[in-house]
Amino acid sequence: MGLRPSTAEPRWVRLLLVSVTLLFLGAFLVTPLVAVFVEAFRKGLGAYLASFADPAVLSAIRLTLLAAGIAVPVNLVFGLAAAWAVAKFEFPGKSLLTTLIDLPLAVSPVVSGLIYVLVFGLHGWLGPWLQAHDLQVIFAVPGIVLATVFVTVPFVARELIPLMQEQGTEDEESALTLGASGWQTFRRVTLPNVRWALLYGVILCNARAMGEFGAVSVVSGHIRGKTNTVPLQVEILYNEYNFVAAFAVASLLAMLALVTLAAKTLVEWRVAAAPASIFAAGEKP
Amino acid sequence: MWYGHGMANLRGNRLLALVCGAVLSLAAVTSVLAAPKTGSARLLNVSYDPTREFYHAYNTAFAAHWKQQTGQDLSVDMSHGGSGKQARGVIDGLQADVVTLALAYDIDAIAQHARLLPPDWQQRLPYNSAPYTSTIVFLVRKGNPKGIRDWGDLVKPGVEVITPNPKTSGGARWNYLAAWAWALKRELGNLDRLQDPAQAAAVAAAQDKARAFVAEIFKRVPVLDSGARGATNTFVQRGIGDVLLAWENEAFLAVKELGPDKVDIVVPSLSIVAEPTVAVVDANVDRHGTRQVAQAYLEWLYSPTGQELAARHYYRPVRVDLIDPALLQRFPALELVRIDEVFGGWVQAQKTHFDNGGVFDAIYAR
User: Fold this and answer.
1) Three-state DSSP state, A155
2) Topology of A45-273 in CATH?
3) Domain extents in chain A
4) Average pLDDT in the B194-208 region?
5) In whole angstroms, what is the distance from residue A37 CA to residue A247 CA?
6) What are A226-236's pLDDT values in tens digits?
7) B8: alpha, beta or left, given left = phi > 0 and alpha = psi -120 to 50?
8) Which of A135, A220, A235 has the highest number of chain B CBs within 10 A, making it the mutation to test binding with B?
9) pTM to 2 decimals?
């Protein structure tokens, strides 16, 4: 007797499901992505490349790299620390902490931006003091960095917490029993156990940091060549009827998305291949 | 347990201190980097949506003029967006040296809420601080397939109207008021009757009709963008709607940028004089040490060069005596009413129509 097929549904149901999924993905993901590149190259490669000669575009790219360059390491450290605390220790307020980590995902980015306006704005809590000391937070680079850090808080921690919880504390306990110090345990046991999830979190964190629009838009002030990030510059170019440049710059973000997707797939594949724990390596289930 | 809790709090405070310290040092570093070098000056002009192209040209011309006058290199940073939103930004601390917004009310708001400039700012420059004016016209699809000739045609069956949101956009408030003024004129025949106390009953009836007419228009608005440029893109690029209520300069620019084969301009029988106003933001220029150059920047808008550039970018110059009459021919003649005559000025119009709980909220909520 042959094996029973793993699904009992008739062939046409399966075909229908697959084609609906593919059509949906095509219409909502692939078509816009293709459209971005078609529009960007509408006037040829020369016009495409010329878009990047605009000092305002270059400054937007620099600012985005700076914001991501600060937000990602900050959230890498914070995410590791938070995940470690949540997964390996019991302490009061733990569930509150995990809820708070998710807050930036639950709050609309525009609200996150407005929070910074309320705190650092001229009429906000710290505004008058900042003004008196000639410090500018919102409508300047620090505000953009802050907003970016805020919206990207959850990504690393959220990737790590479930994995670390699942791995439990046995590996660490063994290491400690064998005489390792706390730092050694962290560096030689905990970190290698989560390295792929960590990388995965960093990739997502970076994609969001570079692509964030709402929160950054609120605190930016949209000063040309100074406080526009890449997504904001795309909107500005579009609004100036400069469609080729708008889509050319947008294609950078699209490429970032593709790179992110590729890196994510690669990491997922490594995660699936990697043993759940370094001590479990070589064991048969 | 309380001990651990206390430790956590202590750590939390230190972490907070660390974060605050990091933010402040970043702020300090960027402030130092942003400080002007001697021999050069920097201005931030916070403007509204459709002035991008005009100020782009004007900044280059003025920088050359300033260099010639003082030997100083000047670079002007621009920020554009919906006029109300931009005013809000300046109130919240956007470091504008000059504001060039869509209407006096938005600058009034800066004077009132943040006291960054005196309440009588509008008297400081000629022509009510409006170096150029504009009006509201219609942009329709090529060949005008819906036959839209005047305000009354906007409420014909099957017509979709595009306008930005009067809450955030200066242009949208002018759109709204122009429509209202046209309806009043239709009901009353002569807008002088508004000032006549003996006509109070007729005026009240006409105001009701005008309100119903404007409400009818807003029922036909499928998308409310936050600024004029967004609305233009909705109409032209995304192809939504049959008629766009637009700044005259924005309509001309859209035809020029996007091609006369796509859209036509329709000039209604009556519209409103829109006075985009400009002002130096006193508190900011005094802190930046830019008062002199900011003042000169705005005054030069009234010079022959400034006026000509305005006309070339489809703003109606106020000093028509200074420029080539051929440049004025692009502006069609139409009956223009003033906000002071019909609505008792911006403060009154804003309070009645656009503030929270005003007429716009009532008609748009329905």
Assistant:
1) helix
2) MetI-like fold (1.10.3720)
3) 1-40, 45-273
4) 90
5) 7
6) 999 999 999 98
7) alpha
8) A135
9) 0.80
